[in-house]
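>> received
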Amino acid sequence: MLRVDRIRVLYEGIPALHEVSLEVKKGELVAVVGANGAGKSTSLKAIVGTVKPASGMIEFEQKDITRFTTPEIVRLGIVYIPEARHIFGPLTVEENLLLGAFTSNSEKEVKEHLDYVYQLFPILKERRKQRGETLSGGEQQMLAIGRGLMTRPKLLMFDEPSLGLMPKLVSELFKTISLLKEEGFTILLVEQNVREALEIADRGYILQTGRTIHTGTGKELLESEMVRKAFLGL
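>> returned
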């Protein structure tokens, strides 16, 4: 479904990504892990078009989208859930969710998707008339995920979704992501919680200083000596 081929990204002339390559097949959950500054978030931003690669290619469903704009990429079915959530605080929960359905022209489809989000996150239905800024951190993360689901995306990309959450909520978050995978969503997950991410991933990629340095199944990476020493303290 997605192929990223040796992309380079520069910030003010300084390389942030050197040659990052990865693939995501339909129905997979693929994790991208690495330390701070490894280039994980930049990789997602390049895929969704908010930063442009200096070289390399990004293909989605065999179409070269390297130079597409972000709205064009979203309309193809790629949804990016950003690290900081970026909900609209003054708007209600339901207004935030409906903004996520901007690509749909069918009221019936929008209602079906809204019902699905409320089934997945019942607390959002209870609080649908509350302003987004009044929600807890965990609830705001649910809202960000729910907004992303309002288009029923072909590819759902999570950027550090556990950041700032309490440990109990982190566990619930990963259960939700696993459930979405079981329900047929294709997922690309960027995470600093290496163990949790690789435990639910079909495959994973390790990034270091803007380069893809290792890949394998989630199980293989968890058992690799490099991951155990570098990220798990074993």
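>> Strands lie at 2-11, 14-24, 29-33, 55-60, 63-64, 78-81, 155-159, 186-191, 203-208, 211-217.
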